[in-house]
Known about the structure:
Blueprint: H1 10-23, H2 27-44, H3 50-56, H4 72-83
Amino acid sequence: xxxxxxxxxxxxxxxxxxxxxxxxxxxxxxxxxxxxxxxxxxxxxxxxxxxxxxxxxxxxxxxxxxxxxxxxxxxxxxxxxxxxxx
Length: 86
């Protein structure tokens, strides 16, 4: 069995004291049950796959592209050259 040191703010400390009074359980038992409840909650939440996040992004048609990606270096050189012409 491991021993842990936990820092609680005054609100959490008050909740813990209230739970001890209401349930008659030890601090250790209350914290163990809290950890188990958090684990059950975390297991119910399934992470969103990267593809679903990407699919939700509105990237548009891509009509704003100056050149295909395979010609990007050449396109950038041309854009800079035209920008600095006077």
